[in-house]
Amino acid sequence: MTHIPGIVITGASGRMGQMLIKTVTDSDHARLVGVVERAGHDWIGQDVGEAMGGQALGVSVTDDPLEAFAQAQAVIDFTAPEATLEFAALAAQARCVHVIGTTGMTDEQIAALEPAARHAVIVRAGNMSLGVNLLVQLTKKVAAALDEDFDIEIIEGHHQHKVDAPSGTALMLGEAAAEGRGVNLTDVSDRGRDGITGARKRGDIGFHAIRGGDIVGEHDVLFAAPGERIVLRHLASDRAIFARGALKAALWGQGKAPGQYDMVDVLGL
Ligand code: NAD
Q1: Whose CA is nearest to atom 1 of ligand 1?
Q2: I need a surface site. Which of 18, 57, 77, 207 has the fewest CB within 10 A?
Q3: Mean pLDDT, to the nearest integer, of 28-46?
Q4: 67-115, pLDDT tens digit by residue?
Q5: CA triplet 85, 91, 97: central angle to 5 degrees?
Q6: Nearest CA to ligand 1 atom 10
């Protein structure tokens, strides 16, 4: 047994899953001890390194999450909302830190994480990159400094395969803008205008989603007033930024008290 934390990656064959496997195997501070895919997937039973088209890594892909989690100190999970809820209960049972990157969870699904968080550490963030988490803090500050003469619009772009909109990051930015203004996002959110919508309502926070090609993730927070505009922008060009943040969260969570945390806690922002 070594003191270097053992990590399980769920959704092993996914865009983020493969990036996370590479990030963990390249790290001197973590060991890859398991990889999970959904039952029936082609990769089940194969060595994950070979399944990814490279050298064997000595870790087979399994569809039994609890067996994998029992060997680990942390689970890094970028999959889908239903799967993430199941993994939260199992990670809590195994007392593993559960790092959740999955987006598109409903308020009910987020609330359903609470029982697991009584027994284990959960770190959940719609975006695990340092840059975006700084952008969130900046958005809150700028929104607090400006009044409703400045219309706030959040414009995000992602690749053609993304299934949820607005992105988890756009929602984080919207929450930050609303918090800075001292309002509730659900009261002011205006999503994807279409048709005869009428004039823009003062104080609304608008959301717009672009989907195309291989865009990794782009977010603009626009503050527009008569005569001037401020644009806060983050451009992601490499998924490695999310994987590095997720691994940092998995290591940070070791020995922390059970509960729900986010990247602002991890990064100490
Ligand atoms: P993807 O479709 O490429 O991969 C998802 C993987 O999850 C697939 O391999 C799928 O088979 C697997 N999966 C689904 N259900 C499963 C189950 N029950 N058991 C095991 N595996 C299961 O998607 P992606 O681009 O890798 O993104 C995954 C999630 O991560 C999305 O919600 C995305 O929005 C989010 N994401 C978050 C961040 C962040 O920083 N928080 C960054 C990028 C992507």
Answers
A1: 14
A2: 57
A3: 98
A4: 999 999 999 999 999 999 999 999 999 999 999 999 999 999 999 999 9
A5: 110
A6: 11
* Backbone phi, psi, residue 2, to 5°: -115, 160
Enter the tokens of residue 112. 């359903």
Cβ atoms within 10 Å of 226's Cβ, excluding its own: 7
User: What is the pTM assigned to this prediction?
Assistant: 0.91
Pocket probe for ligand 1: among 103, 167, 169, 211, the residue whose CB has the most ligand atoms within 8 Å is 103
Q: Out of 22, 98, 140, 158, which one is annotated catalytic?
A: 158
Helix 130-145 to helix 168-181 angle, to the nearest 10 degrees?
A: 30
Q: What is the rounded CA–CA span in Å between residue 5 and residue 147? A: 47
- Sequence letter at residue 166: P
Task: Go through 40-75 and write b for each residue having 16 or more CB atoms within 10 A of its CB, e for each that does not.
Answer: ebebbebbbbebbeeeebebbbbeebeebbbebbbb
Q: Residue 2 pLDDT more than 90?
A: no
Q: What local confidence, expressed as pLDDT, does residue 3 receive?
A: 86
Q: Which amino acid is at 64?
A: D
